[in-house]
Amino acid sequence: MNKINSNTKSGTFIVTDNQQLSSTYSLLILRPEDDIDLKLADFKAGQFVEVLPPANSTFLRRPISVCNVDETTNTLWLLIRDAGAGTHALNASRPGQKIDIIYPLGHGFSTTLPKASKVLLIGGGVGVAPLIYLGRKLKEAGIEPIFLLGARSKSDLLLLDKFNEIGKVFCSTDDGSFGTPGVVTQNPVINDNYDIMFTCGPMPMMKAVAKVAQQNNVECEVSLENVMGCGLGACLCCVEKTKDEGNVCVCTEGPVFNIKRLLW
Question: Are residues 94 and 115 in the same domain?
C-alpha cells in the first residue's frame, strides 16, 4: 500500500539565493511565494521534494533531498548536482525566479532517540545533503551528531562549514587530499561504538556502510536514491525489494529504510 503523507502540498517557491559551490554543485535557497501563510516547519529530516525545473527544460519533476529548513527565514535549502537538463536548469536559476515544488514527500530518518545515543551520520557526494537537517534536528533533541563525509578529493567535499557548526566532522577522500585516505568504511571512526548509523550517498557506499553496521551489531538507516519520476507512488520507477512487503515504492515507503528491511 502506498503511504502518501497527508500534508503533501504543491506550491510556488521563489529563489532567494543560488550559492555556486563548484562548477557542478549549487546550494539553492527558496522561500514560499505565499510566505505569510505557508510555513515549512513540518518538514522531517530525510524527506524530499519534487521540483519542476524552470524554462520547460524537462517534462518530469526532479526529486531533491531536503538539505535544510531555516525556520527563522522560512526558507528551504536544496543541494543541486548538475547531472542533466533538469538539474542544469535548476543550477542556473537566479534570485527572483519562481519554481513549482511538491512537498514534503516520503518518510524520513528516526530522530526520536534517547539523549545518550551515540550516532554517526555518513554521507558521500550529493548524499551529504539530508545530513545537515538531520544533524540539526538531532542536536536540537540533545544528541551530539558525529559526521563522516566522503568524496573523491578535497574539492568535492561540500558544505563543511555548515557541518562543523552542528557537530564533529571526519572526512575521507579517495586521493588522500583531505582527511583519511580511502573510502568512508576505511576511516577508523566508523568502528567506534554507536547506537545507530544514518547514511546517504552512492549505493556501493551505503551497502558497505550497512555491512559494517551489521558486523558491529549497530542499527542503520539508509536513504535510497532510486529514480523517482512522480514522488507519489504512481509511476513505479523507484521500486525496491524488501524482506517484509516485497516490492515497494521508495518515494512513499522511504526514501529512508532500516537496513533490516532491505535485501542487501
Answer: no
Please write the tens of the pLDDT for every residue from 126-157: 999 999 999 999 999 999 999 999 999 999 99
Q: Are 18 and 64 part of one and the same domain?
A: yes
Residues 164 and 73 grouped into a single domain: no
pLDDT value of residue 218:
98
| Structure confidence at residue 239 (pLDDT) | 94
> Could you tell me the CATH number of the domain that includes residue 145?
3.40.50.80
Domain that holds residue 206: 109-221
Q: Label residue 16 left, alpha or beta by phi (over 0 means left) and psi (-120 to 50 means alpha).
A: alpha
**What span, in angstroms and rounded, lies between the C-alpha atoms of 188 and 186?**
6
The verdict on whether omega for the bond into residue 202 sits within 30 degrees of 0, i.e. cis, is no
Does any domain span residue 258? no
What is the greatest pairwise CA distance in the chain?
A: 50
pLDDT digits (tens, 9 = 90+) for 89-101: 999 999 999 999 9
Give the sign of the dihedral formed by CA 180, CA 185, CA 186, CA 191: positive
Q: Which residue has the cell 532567494?
A: 16
Q: Tell me the whole-structure pTM to 2 decimals.
A: 0.93
C-alpha–C-alpha distance, residues 118 and 243, integer Å: 27
